[in-house]
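Minutes, project check-in

Agenda point 3 was the complex the collaborators sent over. CS summarized: three entities, 1346 residues total, and the question is how they sit relative to each other. Sequences were read into the notes so everyone works from the same version.
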Amino acid sequence: MFNKHKAVLLMLALTLMLLLSACQQAATATTEPVPTEDVVISIPTTPPVIEEPTEAPTEEPTAEPTVEPFIFGMVLVGPKNDHGWSQAHYEAGQYIEENIPGAKMIVFESLNSADKPEATLEGVVSDMVSQGATLIFTTSDEFEEDTTTVAANRPDIIFINASGDDTWDQRPNLAVKPPANLGNVMGRMEDMKAIAGCAAALTTETGSIGYLGPLINDETRRLTASAYLGARYCYDNYREETPGELKFEVSWIGFWFNIPGFTLDPTEVANQLFDGGTDVLISGIDTTEALDVAGQRAEKEEAVLAIPYDYEGACDKAPEVCLGVPFFNWGPSYLKIAQSIKDGTWEQSFEWLGPDWADMTNPDTSHVGWVNGPALTDDVKATLDTFISGLADGSINVWTGPINLQDGTEYIADGVEAPDPLIWYLPQLLEGMTGSSK
Amino acid sequence: MRVELQDIQKIFDQVRANDGISLVLEPGRIYGLLGENGAGKSTLMKILSGYQQPTNGTIRLDGQDTSFSSPSDALCRGIGMLYQDPLDFPALPAVENYQLAYQDNLLLDLKSGAEHLRAYGQRFGFAIDPHAYIDTLTLGERQQAELIRLLSLGAEVLILDEPTTGISAEQKEVLFNTMRHLAHDEQKIIILVSHKLEEVQQLCDEVVVLRQGKLMGTRSMPSPTSELVRLMFGGEIARAQKQLFESGRCVLKMEHVTVRSEDLTIQDISLTIREGEVLGLAGLEGSGQQVLLQACAGLLPSSAGKILLDDATVKGKHSGFYWIARLAPGVFAIVIVWLLIRLFGGHIAGLDFAGGAAISLLISGLIWLIGTILVAWTDQSPYHAFQQRGGAYVPAGRLEEGLIPGLTISEHMALAAPTHTFVVDWEQIRSQTVDRIQRYNIVGQPETLVDGLSGGNQQRAMIAFLNQPLRLLLLEHPTRGLDVTSTNWIWELFQERRREGTAIIFTSADLDELLEQSDRIAVFSGGVMSRILNAGETSVDELGHLIGGQEL
Amino acid sequence: MTDQIIRRIWPIAPISLALALITLLMIVVGANPLTVYQALFDGSFGGREQSLSTLAFWVPLLLCSTGLLVTFTAGLWNIGVEGQMIAGSLGASAVALMVAKPNPSIPGWVILPLAIVVAMLSGALWAALAAILKTRGRIHEIFGGVALNNLAAIATIYLISGPWQPPEGGSLRGTVPFPTQALFPLMGTSRFSPLSLILALVALVLVALALRGTFWGLKLKAQGKNLRSAFLLGVPSEREAINAMMVCGALAGLAGAVRVLSWFDSLRQSISGGIGFLAILVVLLAGTRPLWTLLIGLFFSALLNGGTFVHSRVQLHSSLSGLIQGTLVLFVLLLGDYTRIFRRKKTVMEAISDHE
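CS then shared the predicted structure for the full assembly.
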């Protein structure tokens, strides 16, 4: 199916070219008149000419062949319209297309063994390269190892893996050198998850928060733990009457999104969590089942709320039960990388990028963010804002000790702020959370 | 209704199955259609009943040119055919089967259907319970039900294809009386397709004889047998003369044998057969003869008693590997017990109880699997042991049990050969096959698929595949559906075998054949075997009574 | 005889019908079929890399189809070929992870054959299980096969998320990459190993010869056409059923080894990639003829490899190849057997009235 936008653009470009050639013909036909007059005459007969300045950007590629094309590949683990992780990346790609003239994205959706058993990252990359791609974003932890292998085989293409740690100078296995053409980007989502946890803790009536987790690894453990730490902080510090001890239950489905037959069904897991007494459910998976289930239950007059994840517009699916969403905004970081490659100044780097505390929803500056949802009452909003400003000015750090691991061993000593590697490589869930760590 | 067949021709791949046959069939008469296998009887009747279209020629009903698009079309115009195996639905009661004919009715009117069945039954002296399931009825009863169905649909012409095969003497009598009544009182046309001369002579008013696709002539009855045989074969053929035998060593001995099959149990059978002896088994289909043969062949296990072939029981080989598969649960149990003990005494090597149990289950599963594979590789089934010791079993269903449709005659030869090479020596097999084809008078090439052979040739092929020499030959209905020449031919081959010392047990529905070919006869009735009769001292009458379950 | 020629090239019929239908569908949704087919071609044979990738995908498919030639000849519906492939890849992975990884000094010419043998053994045993369930447990091989496929998939997930989990944590993606000495020698940067293709072709030739010329092949053929008659003619049917299944399982196991040791470099979540089921389709289309199995397998491999290219270039969903596959199944079932279609009327008549 042809993209509608493309078709419209094509039509516009065609009409413009027709108009231009018409003008040229007119210009050559009249042998030696004053050229300005000719233009003046053409104005009333062809009104679109007035719009020409606004059409300029679209006209550029056809009219000016000097803009050299810049083609990059975007490999997504899920569908590009998942209202979650993959859509956030897809829109970052569009952001590059908008901001770099001549930039063109090649997308490959749903690269995972369940949806596309015959496709491999290697095959996808080779297709993209044969179409002229010089930069390829592999936007999942799933692709981390394969990206390293493929990158080593293709030194002239630059690979950016989102959520990987191969190029971090604080990774445990420093002896393994990453290929020089590999970079890593990750959003510093921890504080946003803490805000999500806080919002949940401020609104729960039953004192029981649920967390719908994907699979279990370093990344998901630290994000789940961050949500818990934020929840615990707000529950202990801001709630006037505390209904009892805070319960924080984590259920893992087994993958980033639902794959029938391979994962648990997230809809079912969400329902189980609600049935088990949870009234606020935080999502850690790429798709919006947690919010969908909450919406359905709210229609049956149940007092439940949910917090989706990943994508700024995720609340749309069931706004009335949405407390807000912690989201990624990959646009600015990806644009920076694309621009530097275009300019020839790219250097290998590991980026773990945080929010623009001044304006978390600024699409050009904030790498991660939190937007309030329609279900948030004004009272809670005010308290939440206090918490956020505390995070922003550094007076609150939820990753401050004492923090114990789930098995009871001390992880961060009393009063110590956890250093980055200890957060990134969290080996277990924390004491006070229920759910498996491995 | 008057039926005229004019110059009917049917050509299959250059074979003229019917070659210009013209006939006039008048109402109120019973016609016999005679001819040996492949003479074109079936083809002619298929054409008349709408299953096949003639290549040339016309069918006229009451003077009007007609062609039938299908059997049901023919039935609509009054021509019905009764098959050897009635075309019914075994899993339905008789009345529902009957009602299936009336497809136009949306609702099944079972009550009136049952009435119909009863009314017709009374008229002809048939006794069919309308609510009995078809598969509980005898072949004769199924035939009767089918006959009622055809008549109720308005059949004016009834074609009966070998109707007396497999039905009892009483049923045959009822059937024949009905036919006479239908023809002579109700002015219907009856066509009896048969190769049994006596039946044709008993029933028919007129006989039509075919040979090699051509009409050889029609004769009004009564007509001398020799005349009919001359028309059928172009010469008179005498039945094979029975050879006397001298009893030799004991080949098969059964002592108080009980065998349970799915729907029948035969109990306490004792008999002895010597070299060169022929034992005939009589009885209605499914009375226990087949069970006995299969038990002898090792295809059915006997639950009591002994079956000795040359003084040794017929049993398969069990390999020594059986104990490996047996070991598995033991290993599992031991490991579990060990784990249970350790469970209360602390951890072992990082394995918790569940993990240990899983691993021991896995290991014992693997032992069981490998053991079972080894057993399957080395075991020999009782039947194959029976074959190896010189036994052979020729089942009745040729393409179901005896031959492999889709395989050539040579391929069958290669399979049936007593010794095999890893790479098949097709040259040698082919020459052997050519040899056997000639010797057994099979019309076909080594490369002919067995399903392309005619029935008689298939039967001869099955016998051609038997090895030399044999100790015991078990035959189910060896000549069913064959004409006299083929039957004689085959029995000559068997007689040759018995001269070589092979003992033969065979079943047959043809009492004459049993009396002629056997030395002794045993009669089965409902799973019970009669005393063993001396063929020379018994009669059709006595056999008939025994078949019906009465001792004289 | 034209009849013979038609029969010989019959497998093309369902394929071309399916392609025609898909082309129509593309026109309906507004895509240019030419562009799509061009992309399909470019993605499968457009360049060295694409061609090698198509070949790499073809090898396990070829191995599975070769195995299925044996079981189909023996009249067994070995749906479990998928599970046998997984069992093979588990066996190969076990060698790579438990033998090669802790002992980097063992050279590749020891490790790789070991991995292959273990993989073939695992596949064969897994297949024997289905066969024994059939012969001794009276469970039809289709049901047994489906159950064992699921069991094999569950075992993979258990191993990936349990004992063979990578140290950095539990993604369901797969194990750590295997040491290179355990992998097939690859051609350049592609995932294609000429050695694996040679093995597959040798297997196909051997199987074709065995089915055609040996007594074993004749027994399988007999058994496949009429089990009862074959038994009565002296074929030990249980043994031959187990043997046929085990040969197929061994080849499927080898295919599994090729998947983990060349197409991937580690054990993945759905390692079989549906190749087993695809192979069943290939063999059905080919009507158990070895040469057609070869060609149709290559066609499917190209189709699936090109499918990803279509997706990234034309933005037509890459399930296009799945769609073609689906319509193919339909057409194969509709037109599958040439004889059945053109002889149907006659055979029905004969079946009803053959009472001579």
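Noted in discussion: Residues 3-233 of chain B form a domain with the Rossmann fold fold (CATH 3.40.50.300).
Follow-up: revisit at the next meeting once the mutant set is ready.
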